[in-house]
Specification:
This protein is mostly helical. The chain has one domain (18-294). It has 12 helices and no strands.
């Protein structure tokens, strides 16, 4: 879906929105990153050539802009119209939040990715209530690598980000883009029933595969190239494991977060970025579900 075009007549309120009745597929950033039935090669390729973090950030911003647009149009709109259009707002908030968590978990490919990750981290902190004292600030500093102080590297990363092409970002992923007008599409996606048991089983499977890859290092006859492949596959399996848990944490249906901690692989606690990103997913997921409960639609 092409974002709202400024050349079209701009609606003055939610009451004058031209709603799109077309039903389209909606794929959030974490769903787009998850692998289904991956092989060793798939796991290894995922970690060796990770998706474009800068692209995830760009799509997060586009959905964030739609949220701001909704708020602006809601000002002065009749209460009944606002209530009718709340599904779009909630869905767009969740799409933006899911993208933020994906950025917190994914490794940066290059300087442009590192710069985009820092920007998204700063935006996340500023969105927090009392950002200076919020407990999530420390986690965000870890997940988004905001404590790095190499001025030369930071400058080089900013230059790399400024020099990247922006046109390809929206189409370089299976993740989809949406606007306020997509009332039907966003409502259907918001009301979807996340299969928590299936995601837990998926997370367990990735954890088992990570352990199998680790155990295979004991084979003395492995060639260096095979060892590199297995090492990459283990990292890929561990990241897929955490992505599945993050998808559970962000579900709009009730979630027993204790299950997430029970299923989490022990090595997650030794990976600062993964642990911080998962804890952020759990916290923002709880906040999102509380918002839905307080303002049902």
């Amino acid at each position: 879906m092409i974002p709202y075009q400024s050349g079209a007549p701009a609606p003055e309120s939610l009451a004058t929105l031209q709603l799109d009745p077309t039903l389209r597929a909606t794929i959030d950033e974490i769903a787009a990153l998850r692998l289904h039935g991956p092989s060793i090669a798939d796991y290894a390729a995922f970690i060796r050539k990770p998706p474009n973090v800068a692209g995830i950030v760009e799509r997060a911003r586009l959905h964030g802009d739609q949220v701001k647009r909704f708020v602006a149009l809601a000002d002065g709109s009749p209460p009944g119209v606002i209530t009718f259009n709340l599904p779009q707002l909630y869905a767009l908030v969740l799409l933006n939040t899911t993208a933020t968590v994906a950025v917190a978990l994914m490794p940066a490919r290059d300087g442009a990715d590192r710069h985009a990750r820092r920007q998204q981290g700063q935006a996340f902190i500023q969105s927090l209530e009392n950002p200076e004292d919020n407990d999530l600030r420390h986690l965000a500093e870890i997940a988004f690598r905001l404590k790095e102080r190499d001025v030369s590297q930071i400058t080089q990363d900013a230059i790399a980000f400024a020099g990247r092409g922006h046109g390809e970002a929206p189409t370089s992923s299976r993740a989809t883009l949406h606007t306020i007008e997509e009332h039907v599409t966003l409502r259907v996606w918001l009301k979807r029933q996340t299969d928590i048991p299936a995601l837990l089983e998926e997370a367990r499977h990735h954890a088992v595969m990570a352990d199998r890859f680790a155990a295979s290092f004991d084979q003395d006859e492995l060639h260096p190239q095979e060892r590199d492949e297995i090492a990459a596959a283990r990292e890929g399996a561990l990241l897929q494991h955490v992505l599945a848990l993050a998808e559970i944490a962000l579900a709009s249906v009730p979630v027993d977060t204790d299950l997430i901690f029970e299923v989490a692989h022990a090595s997650v606690a030794t990976r600062a970025q993964l642990q911080a990103g998962l804890l952020i997913a759990i916290a923002v997921g709880q906040h999102y579900r509380a918002m839905l409960a307080a303002n049902p639609c």
